[in-house]
């Protein structure tokens, strides 16, 4: 708790005495910290991709000496920076709907096989870029399930993306999925940098990013896990985390296939 104490003396015409005011400003300090974190993240996440896009686009426009291979490489960089910008804007919009209480989920019948194909397609390029191994254990029977497909895909991609991002070269990431007793359960396990015990309760907070330099050297906004938490809760499910610093992290998600929204 942060308590601001101020003392107000009384003037000589009044009875001698003092009034002490105690005001709990914890909430105010938390919002100030959150605002500063938001400004830092927004500045970085908007400025960095924009200046990269500008630099590569300018080179493409003005430089005649670049060959077709290089042109393709620059276009790929521009494309991935635009994707990064779009993801940040989408996350901000979702966080803002979450704050206003207008984030909704729309359960629809989903072909589970197609769902995991989509997730693995999105994760593959990230795994390819890094010298880590990835394995998935999917159920043999893939029944049709009723969830908000796009939002659950985003949760899975975020958790798997983090596992890949925060696992150094040579490490391993595993996705385990179970669908039984009307529950969709998945575990995402990595052998990465891990999370310090004192930071574990904060990982689902908006804008939280660990101060660990191995985390800071990767790009990120601190929004993914708070959105994942909200989406899982809106499905009536639960998301938890277990981690040992320098050994690895496991995120566990459990979602009822019908029911509370
Ligand atoms: P981002 O990855 O963009 O920073 P997230 O909201 O997805 O934001 O995650 C919040 C923070 O939780 C990360 O910055 C990191 O400190 C921690 N974290 C999340 N996943 C992992 C993981 N698999 N291993 C280690 N730390 C993690």
TrEMBL record:
Is Cytoplasm among this UniProt entry's keywords? no
From what superkingdom does this record's organism come? Bacteria
Which positions fall inside the Histidine kinase domain?
A: 41-259
Q: Give yes or no: UniProt keyword Flavoprotein.
A: no
Molecular function terms from GO? phosphorelay sensor kinase activity
Per UniProt, the keywords (alphabetical) are:
Kinase, Membrane, Phosphoprotein, Transferase, Transmembrane, Transmembrane helix, Two-component regulatory system
Q: What is this protein called?
A: histidine kinase
Q: Which gene encodes it?
A: yycG
Q: Which residues of the full protein are shown?
A: 345 to 605 of 605
């Amino acid at each position: 708790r942060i308590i601001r104490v101020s003392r107000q003396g009384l003037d000589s015409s009044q009875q001698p005495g003092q009034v002490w005011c105690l005001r709990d400003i914890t909430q105010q300090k938390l919002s100030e910290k959150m605002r500063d974190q938001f400004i830092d993240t927004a500045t970085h996440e908007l400025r960095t991709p924009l200046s990269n896009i500008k630099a590569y686009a300018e080179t493409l426009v003005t430089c005649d000496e670049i060959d077709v291979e290089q042109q393709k490489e620059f276009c790929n960089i521009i494309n991935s920076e635009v994707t990064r910008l779009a993801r940040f804007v989408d996350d901000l919009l979702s966080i803002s709907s979450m704050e206003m209480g207008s984030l909704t989920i729309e359960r629809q019948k989903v072909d589970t096989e197609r769902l995991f194909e989509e997730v693995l397609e999105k994760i593959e390029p990230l795994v390819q870029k890094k010298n880590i191994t990835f394995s998935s254990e999917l159920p043999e029977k893939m029944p049709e399930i009723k969830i908000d497909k796009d939002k659950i895909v985003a949760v899975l991609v975020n958790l798997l993306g983090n596992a890949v991002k925060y696992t150094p070269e040579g490490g391993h990431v595993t996705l385990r999925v179970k669908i039984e007793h009307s529950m969709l359960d998945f575990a995402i396990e990595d052998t990465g940098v891990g999370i310090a015990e004192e930071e574990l309760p904060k990982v689902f907070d908006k804008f939280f990013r660990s101060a660990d330099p191995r985390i800071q050297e990767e790009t990120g906004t601190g929004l993914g896990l708070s959105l994942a938490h909200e989406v899982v809760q809106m499905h009536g499910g639960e998301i938890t985390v277990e981690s040992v610093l320098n050994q690895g992290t496991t995120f566990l998600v459990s979602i009822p296939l019908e029911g509370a929204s």
